[in-house]
Amino acid sequence: MALDFGSLFGKKNPPLIGLDISSSGVKLVELSEVGKGELRLECFASEPLARGAVVDGNIENIDQVSDAVHRVWKKSGTRAKFAAMGMPPASVITKKIILPSGLSEESLELQVETEASQYIPFALDEVRLDFDVIGPVENSPEDVEVMLAATRKEKVEDRVAVAEAAGITPTVMDIESYAARAAIERITRQLPNAGKGQILGLFQIGAQVTHISILLDGQLIYEREQPFGGHQLTQDIVRTYGLSYEEAEIKKKMGDLPDGYQSDILEPFLENAALEVTRAIQFFFTSTPYTRIDQLFLAGGCAIIPGMVDMIANRTKLSTSVVSPFKGMQLGPNVREKQLRIEAPAYLVACGLAMRRFD
Fold first, then answer.
1. Residues 6 or more apart from 74 whose CB is under 8 A from it?
2. Are 151 and 87 in contact (CB under 8 A)?
3. Which of 99, 158, 189, 241 is the most exposed place for a label (fewest CB within 10 A)?
4. How far apart are CA 107 and CA 41, in angstroms?
5. Per-residue model confidence (pLDDT) at position 174
6. 231 with 209: CB under 8 angstroms?
7. pLDDT digit string (tens) for 46-103?
8. Distances from the Cα of 65 to the Cα of 62, 78, 352, angstroms
């Protein structure tokens, strides 16, 4: 289920781009539908951000970020002017509540606001609030389960300001982790028996943070974030070779570094990454009733670092693969396939956001 802040901005309207803003850059995806449930990737593009433009999910420099959004829009070749955007999970409070079924829309809104005031540590006039009726409660047909979501107004307004300054209209505001799960759900449906009964671990290893989601039959059973990401590797390169942060990022991506890089810097970083993943899995086992994970999926910009998959598979002894959110999709004429193969795992959130066009 994807939460929709769409009501904050008026109606959704196709065609729609998925616009993912993270601390390391801006990513854009546009999808179209070609037949029932068949998707086609029309375009994708990314643009790096200067350090400090986005910190801990907060937009610190609106001009820098909106310039990057405008550049990524032009680079992608899309004509779409409507966007689905994501909020970092840490900035959104979500809560499942039970309410009587059969309430009118107005009564439902009032009830949600009353409930929300108990869970939200801010005044209600400082927050954007939305809710989604999930469906009847098991064993209690006279009640419905409702998911409410709230975030600080300024966090939404900053993202809207960035998009609008770049000439784009945001029509859907989702939660990044929900968008990633929507994209991964498409992939799990392609597994044998649609992945039924399998416990799947999704590790999105970004620049600053690794987001962990454990799923069973499409349901989230565990979620947390760990402060670990590719930023650490870039810092090691900066320190060792006396480069600027920007130079280090470029050389890291190009693999254009001196001979000792592999053994002195990359391997210790990969060891550390594998240790972080193993720790996270142990933590999942000790804090839930579950004692196994059947399949690990790696995503995020760091998933594509050479050696990452093998190191994690060896350390965890689990079946591990890098996930492409575009697997099984048709590719539009403007999509550069070689580039897509390399970069796809970094587009999980952007792809999930772009899929909101078909809700």
1. none
2. yes
3. 189
4. 41
5. 94
6. no
7. 999 998 999 988 999 999 999 999 999 999 999 999 999 999 998 998 888 899 988 8
8. 5, 19, 21
Among all chains, which residue has been given the structure tokens 């539009």?
332
Gap between the Cα atoms of 48 and 54, Å rounded:
11
CATH number of 191-324: 3.30.420.40
pTM across the whole model: 0.91
Q: Which two tokens stand for residue 105?
A: 């829309």
Measure CA 122 to chain center. 25
* SS3 sequence of 218-265: CEEEEEEEECCCCHHHHHHHHHHHCCCHHHHHHHHHHCCCCCCHHHHH
Distance CA 175, CA 131 (A): 13
Tokens representing residue 335 in the block: 């999509």
Give the long-range contacts of residues 334-341, CB within 8 A, separation 24 or more: 334/42, 334/43, 334/77, 335/41, 335/42, 335/43, 335/44, 340/41, 340/44
Would you say 20 and 47 are in contact if contact means Cβ atoms under 8 Å apart?
no
| Residue 91 CA from chain centroid, whole number | 13
Query: CA distances (Å), 345 to each of 137, 215, 267, 350, in order?
Result: 36, 18, 21, 10
| Sign of the torsion angle spanned by Cα atoms 326, 332, 335, 341 | positive
319 alpha-carbon distance from chain centroid: 22
Residue with tokens 């870039």: 234
Closest CA to 101 of 115, 114, 111, 92: 111
CA distance 85 to 95: 21
The domain spans of the chain are 91-153, 191-324
